[in-house]
Write a structure and sequence with these properties.
- This protein folds into 2 domains: about 240 residues, no CATH class; about 100 residues, abc type-2 transporter like domain (abc type-2 transporter like fold, 3-Layer(aba) Sandwich).
- The chain has 14 helices and 4 strands.
- The chain starts with 7 loop residues before the first helix and ends with a helix.
């Protein structure tokens, strides 16, 4: 085993020297993920608020005004204009002035006072599914709550009362949900690209062939090349965790030591994949294209944006082959739920196995090239 690592120290030292000479690449690798994290944390908010809303109140009495006040106070609807006709109400949606339009009929208060059913028309712009879904849920909930209050006032308490309680992210803050998963995406992007480019650059300059004729074993060569980038990736991870905690105020409920320990297998997978890509690619542009082949599916299949449980069976099975699936689960488990090593150790084992398979496959390809030379 030790003989297979011949040349590791020499290649490691060579790669460190290369990183020192290419200080701009190191700087970009450290700064760009933080910039992307800042954009995501500040610019993107999945909590839909202040949806532009127009109102047609044909009743005008206290009961209708109270209902509109409940909509306004929900923080979901922002009343931009009161219109006087159905045509104006429809035009406000079509023109994009409003995404929601509320119409209260003239007999709304009379029907409530007679204890009859009263209807409120809520028109929702379905061209934006996230806004329409939130508006539909909130308006339906407010209408249901209003009905229950009147039923309770008339007939006494309800026989069953459900009191939901949201754990771990009770305020549904977007950064708390998005940033832990974003860390997995950024680490994959940086480590995979840097490693793939470093080996391909050796090919383009002709120095890789020189390494083949030296007494450097393929496994030692690859480990020596990826180890400096492992150190760089760990430094990047620490910087992103600090920014997440102190800039975006995302609480870290679990152990940072456990998080760092379980991050090493994921970084190993990402670096190994970048190395494997470099054995296939013949140029840096080709390496970038091949890296994107895994990066795009990772975003959609890892559970970062869409829950894996809701995917069709075929894609759910494919998600188990995506390393980020295990790391996103680990990040959210430790950061948000306070999980520890005893809960997440299996994710680390799977990632370590994936990284070993990729690195061995890359070493075999290099070995074949050495034999050919």
């Amino acid at each position: 085993m030790l003989k297979a690592l011949d040349g590791f120290v020499a290649v490691f030292y060579k790669e460190v020297l290369h990183l020192r000479r290419d200080s701009m690449a190191v700087l970009m690798a450290l700064i760009m993920p933080l910039f992307q994290m800042a954009m995501l944390g500040w610019a993107i908010d999945t909590n839909v608020r202040n949806v532009p809303t127009t109102v047609l109140n044909q009743d005008g009495r206290r009961e209708s005004r109270e209902f509109l006040d409940r909509l306004r106070n929900s923080d979901t609807f922002h009343f931009v204009r009161t219109v006087g006709s159905d045509k104006e109400l429809q035009e406000s949606i079509v023109s994009g002035e409003a995404h929601v339009a509320v119409k209260i009929p003239p007999d709304y208060s009379d029907r409530l006072l007679r204890k009859e059913g009263a209807q409120v028309l809520v028109l929702i712009d379905g061209s934006d599914s996230s806004v329409s879904g939130q508006a539909l849920n909130v308006s339906t909930t407010i209408g249901l709550d209003e009905s229950l209050k009147r039923m309770v006032a008339a007939q006494g308490p309800l026989p069953v009362e459900v009191r939901p309680r949201v754990l771990f992210n009770p305020d549904s803050k977007s950064p708390n949900f998005l940033l832990p998963g974003m860390i997995a995406m950024l680490l994959l992007q940086i480590t995979c690209f840097l490693t793939a480019f470093s080996v391909v650059r050796e090919k383009e300059s002709g120095t890789l062939e020189q390494l083949f004729v030296t007494p450097v074993k393929p496994l030692g060569l690859l480990l020596g090349k990826i180890s400096p980038y492992m150190v760089l990736a760990i430094a990047e991870l620490v910087m992103m965790l600090l920014a997440m905690r102190f800039v975006f105020s995302v609480p870290v409920e679990g152990s940072l030591v456990s998080l760092l320990l379980l991050s090493i297998p994921y970084l190993f997978v990402a670096l190994s994949f970048g190395t494997f890509v470099s054995t296939k690619a013949t140029s840096q542009s080709e390496a970038m294209q091949m890296s994107f082949m895994i990066f795009i599916p990772t975003i959609f299949l890892s559970g970062y944006i869409f829950p894996r449980e809701t995917m069709p069976l075929f894609f759910r099975c494919m998600s188990y082959l995506v390393p980020a699936s295990y790391y996103v689960d680990t990040l959210r488990g430790i950061i948000l739920r306070g999980a520890g090593l005893r809960h997440m150790w299996m994710n680390g084992v799977v990632l370590l196995a994936m990284g070993t398979i990729l690195l061995v496959a890359a070493a075999r390809r290099f070995h074949n090239k050495v034999v050919a030379v």
